């Protein structure tokens, strides 16, 4: 199984319909190549980072390198 097929299968396991999973996999592979060139890192490292964002995002989490969500401002009438 090649990389694109593996990425497609992963996206499907995460809940994407087959056509969308194939599109997502192609975008992930393309972006990993772009990040590798831009940042001078191995393509595998770039893909690992993208997959971390994908999996954590699917779980409703924020990867540590992005920081957590900011605290919402207090509602009107609430004290700080």
The gross shape turns out to be: flat
Q: Count up the domains.
A: 1
| Helix and strand run | HHH
- Strand tally is 0
Radius of gyration: 17 Å
The amount of helix comes to 55-70%
Poorly predicted regions are: none
- The number of helical runs is 3
Strand content: under 5%
Global mean pLDDT? 88
Distance between the termini: 55 Å
Largest sheet: number of strands, sense, barrel closure: none
Task: Name the structural class.
Answer: mainly alpha
Oligomer: single chain
Which helices and strands appear, and what pairs or packs with what?
Blueprint: H1 3-13, H2 18-39, H3 43-58
Helix pairs in contact: 1-2, 2-3
Summarize the structure.
The protein is mainly alpha-helical.
Structural summary, described in words:
The protein is mainly α and 80 residues long. It has one domain (3-61). It contains 3 helices and no strands. Helix 1 (3-13) packs across helix 2 (18-39) and helix 2 crosses helix 3 (43-58). It is flat. The model has no long low-confidence stretch (mean pLDDT 88).
List key phrases describing it:
3 helices; 80 residues; mainly alpha; single chain
């Amino acid at each position: 199984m090649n990389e694109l097929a593996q990425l497609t299968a992963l996206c499907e396991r995460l809940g994407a319909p087959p056509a969308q999973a194939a599109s997502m996999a192609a975008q992930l592979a393309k972006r990993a190549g772009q990040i590798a060139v831009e940042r001078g890192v191995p393509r595998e490292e770039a893909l690992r980072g993208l997959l971390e964002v994908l999996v954590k995002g699917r779980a409703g989490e924020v990867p540590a390198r992005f920081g957590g969500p900011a605290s919402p401002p207090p509602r009107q009438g609430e004290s700080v």
